[in-house]
Each structure stands twice: as C-alpha cells, then as structure tokens.
Write a sequence for this structure.
C-alpha cells in the first residue's frame, strides 16, 4: 500500500476530491497547511506598517491506496490540482506497512 | 456653579441631552471593539476589559469627587473646583444647570471622562498588569482628567476664562490629554515583546470597522450634545461631525493609495476617527468649510503620524498618539484659523480677519495641557510601577493576557479547542474553575 500526500492550492480541493471519487477512492483526509516553495508569500500593510507573510495557505490531502492504484491516483490529483501557475504544490508517495480499520479490526488492503 | 432650584429645565434640551449621554456612553464599548480588533487573538479580551472596567471605575470616582472637583465652584486661580458636591451632595432632581437637570449634565460629562481613560489603554495594549490598570484609571481620572476639564469647562477655569482658548467638545480634556498620557504610559511600560520584530497585525478587522461605526454614531452625542441644548448650534456641530469624519476617511485612504498602493479597511476606520478627533474641539466654532478642511488635514497628517513610533522607538501600540494627540492638536489649533463669528458669537480665526490672537491662545492651551497630562501621567505610571509593577510578566505576555489573567479564550479554534463536544475535547469540566496565573 502507498500513502499519497498532496499539498495543493486550497481552491483546487473540490476538483481533486471529485477526481478521486471518480477513480473510486473512498476516503481521504484533508488538513489545512501553510508553507512555501518557489511561490513566495505576500505583503500586507496595516496603518503603513508593512508585513511580509512568508507562509502561503495550502491544503494537505492524504490518501492510502493499493500499490497498483498509486500512479493513477497521483495522476488524477496532479491533473485536478494543476493551474500551471507557480504555487500549484507537490504530490509524493510513501510505502505503508499496515492499515487497520478501527471499527472492525480489519487489516491490510481490506481496511481501505 | 449656579444651581438654581427655582429654575426649570427645558424639556427639549433635556430630552436631547438624555439621548446624547447614552450615545457617548456607547462609544466606550465601541472603542473596546475598535481596539480589540487591532490586537492579536491572545489578548483581545484583556483589551475589551480595559475599556469596560473604565466605565465602572471612572463612574465611581466621578460621583464620589470627580464631578465636584471639575464642575464645582472654583477654589482659586481657575485650577480646580471645590468638594461641595462630593458624593453628588446638594444635587437633586430639581437642580438645574443651564437649561438641563444638573444630574443629567453631570452624567453627560461623566461619559466623557470614561472614554478618555479608556482611550489610553490603546497605547499599552497586550502588556499591562490588570491590577495596576484598576489602580491607574481612578487615580488618573482625578489627577489628570478632572483638573484639565475644570480649566476648559469648569466655572472660572483658566483656559476658558483667563486665556480665552476655545474647545467645544473636548480636544484638550479628551483627545490631547489621552494622547499625551498614552505616550507617557507606553514609555513607562516599554515596548511589547517582539515590537518591530514580530508581526502584530490586527486579528479582526470587521470588529475594528464595527467599533469605528459605533464610535462615529456615539460621536454625534459627544459633539452635538456639547451644545447642551436642542438647538441650531447642536445641528451645526452634528453636521460638522459628519463632514469631518468623511474627509478624514478620504484623506487617509488617499495617502494609503499613493504611499502603500492599497486603500485599506483599517485606514478607512482610522481616517474617520482621526477626522472625528480633530473636529471635536472645533465643531462648535467652525463653519462647514472649516470642518471639511479640519477633517481632511487630520486624515492626511495622522496617516503619517502613526509611523513615527517605529522611527522614534516608542510602542504606542494602537496609535493613541498618532491619532488622538496629533488629531486633537490639529483640531484645537485650527480653531485659531477657521473660527467664525456666526458659530462662536464673537471670536474669529485668522482666515476671517481675527489675526493671530486666537491661534496663539489655542497654542498655549495645547502646549500646557499636553505637557501637564504627559508629566503627571508619567509620574503616576512610575509610582504604580514601583509600588505594584505596572507590566505583566514575560510569561503572561507570551501566552496572552486572556488566558493568564482572565482564564478565558476569545475564540473556538479547531476541533481540539473549546469548540469540540466536551467528551472528545481536551477540556473537561471541573467542579471549580481555577486560573493558572
């Protein structure tokens, strides 16, 4: 199994969710995140005092899938999240040792 | 003061002043929101509390002695009134001051004393020991607000009766006094931890806008109420108040657009308040043209004045100096330029052929009141600091005064905070809530 983590622009979340649902991915976890890569932050001005805000708001989407589905899921996320502009984010995958469904105790791919 | 039991209050004047008094009292909760929105989430409740406790503290000292010292018969030199009416002695429902009941006049004036004390809290946001503030407010009201008010509005007060400077609704006792006192107190306390290093942006600008709106609303009671009657002068002051707030707002936004590239909500709120501050002393002595210029001048100048603290290194956190001291000086001085006979009943400013005489009187009043407020407040601040400590501990300041002083949190943030169902929250109810100060 693979844990796929995607950091994307917050307003692309709906597109990514729809694309994953179409692929048959049944669950995902979303967290609000902040960070920066090549996209720099922005400046804000309050009563003439300027603040540099380095961290840009993003969402982090996490999905665990079977090994064979990993590439298709990554492609779907990238396609849905892409705007072509700087700051579109990153997607990566890591191997997962085990997964347990808390309600039933099922283990492994059955728990997905 | 003449309290004629035989005279009758005018019903129209009384009705208007009753309403105006309630309007001015509303300004202090408005100020609490205006200031509260500008601080960070960790100390917003403390900011609100500093204003709300001022209502209670100043009311008690005003009724006990403040009113009598400010508006009682002068005991010599135009410096202070006597204690004849301490505890509101000798004043009943039949006592009349001018054309309104004396008890109403005293309450109207009380609401001014309240907001002036609360205004100072903006200069020392996020770092005041709460107990020290509770001591400071009544002492300050008696030693600074009360004497200056006697000089300007009290019977025989030297600024009005000997010097002849004009102040319709409180440029000297309210705006300049609070601004100069704010400067003194922020120097006593020193800057917030992280001043000029950490981002200290306002946490809730809609709250700031709501506060500014309530202030503006209440300001009609403040300025038009200062006519102490339902008459044409009140109407002129009312219109001037609207006009100056508008040009102040536009002036500040114009500077922001040119200087920073963006017109901001905080700029709009600040500009309106700057214009209102400046028209406070002058609303009863300038024409509409004067009001438009006074407001515009304040909006433009104050939008620059708020950045002096970064160059000169004093942490006037919410710009009491930049807005109230500077705006108050502008409005008080410009009376010497724009005063018109039709409004003042005699005095004329430079622009209307009155020469430099009135401007000189206004300048003397500004300098003396600013110096007095600064020095006495600095002294009170130092004494309280020695005796009790005026500043919250470093730990309290880092964690925020809301949690460490009041044992409260302003907002529910996230599922692990107070917003979650109690069973799955990190909080669980206890028999008795104890604070960890």
């Amino acid at each position: 199994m693979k844990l796929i983590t995607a950091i994307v622009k917050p307003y692309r979340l709906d597109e990514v969710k729809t694309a994953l649902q179409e692929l048959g991915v049944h669950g995902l976890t979303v967290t609000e995140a902040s960070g920066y890569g090549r996209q720099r932050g922005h400046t804000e001005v309050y009563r003439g005092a300027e603040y540099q805000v380095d961290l840009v708001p993003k969402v982090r989407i996490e999905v665990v899938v079977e090994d064979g589905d990993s590439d298709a899921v990554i492609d779907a996320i990238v396609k849905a999240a892409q705007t072509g502009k700087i700051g579109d984010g990153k997607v990566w995958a890591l191997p997962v040792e085990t997964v347990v469904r808390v309600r039933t105790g099922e283990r492994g791919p059955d728990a997905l | 003061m003449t309290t004629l039991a035989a005279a009758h209050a005018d019903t129209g004047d009384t009705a208007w002043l009753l309403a105006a008094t309630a309007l001015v009292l509303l300004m202090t909760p408005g100020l609490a929101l205006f200031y509260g929105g500008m601080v960070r989430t960790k100390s917003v409740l403390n900011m609100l509390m500093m204003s709300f406790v001022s209502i209670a503290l100043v009311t008690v000292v005003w009724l006990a002695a403040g009113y009598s010292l400010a508006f009682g018969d002068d005991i010599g030199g135009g410096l202070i009134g006597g204690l004849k009416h301490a505890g509101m002695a000798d004043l009943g429902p039949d006592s009349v001051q001018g054309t309104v009941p004396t008890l109403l006049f005293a309450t109207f004036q009380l609401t001014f004393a309240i907001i002036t004390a609360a205004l100072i809290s903006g200069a020392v946001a996020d770092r005041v020991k709460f107990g020290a503030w509770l001591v400071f407010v009544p002492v300050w009201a008696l030693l600074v607000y009360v004497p200056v008010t006697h000089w300007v509005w009290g019977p025989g007060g030297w600024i009005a009766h000997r010097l002849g400077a004009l102040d319709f609704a409180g440029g000297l006792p309210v705006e300049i006094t609070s601004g100069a006192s704010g400067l003194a107190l922020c120097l006593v306390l020193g800057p917030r931890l992280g001043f000029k290093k950490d981002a200290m942006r306002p946490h809730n600008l809609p709250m700031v806008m709501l506060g500014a709106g309530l202030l503006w609303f209440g300001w009609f009671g403040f300025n038009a109420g200062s006519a102490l009657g339902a008459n044409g002068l009140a109407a002129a002051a009312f219109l001037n108040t609207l006009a100056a707030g508008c040009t102040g707002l536009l002036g500040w936004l114009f500077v922001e657009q040119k200087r920073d590239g963006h017109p901001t909500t905080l700029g709009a709120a600040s500009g309106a308040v700057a214009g209102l501050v400046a028209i406070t002393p002058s609303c009863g002595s300038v024409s509409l043209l004067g009001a438009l210029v006074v407001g515009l001048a304040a909006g433009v100048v104050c939008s620059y004045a708020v950045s002096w603290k970064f160059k000169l290194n004093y942490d006037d956190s919410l710009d009491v100096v930049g807005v109230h001291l500077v705006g108050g000086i502008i409005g008080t001085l410009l009376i010497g330029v724009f005063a018109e006979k039709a409004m003042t009943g005699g005095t004329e400013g430079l622009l209307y052929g009155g020469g430099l005489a009135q401007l000189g009187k206004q300048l003397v009043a500004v300098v003396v009141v600013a110096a007095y407020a600064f020095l006495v407040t600095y002294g009170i601040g130092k004494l309280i600091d020695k005796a009790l400590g005026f500043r919250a501990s470093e730990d309290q300041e880092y964690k925020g005064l809301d949690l460490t002083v009041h044992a409260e949190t302003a907002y529910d943030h996230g599922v692990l905070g107070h917003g979650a169902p109690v069973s799955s929250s990190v909080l669980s109810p206890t028999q008795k809530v104890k604070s960890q100060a």
Summary: The domain at 11-387 of chain B is CATH 1.10.3430.10 (Ammonium transporter fold).
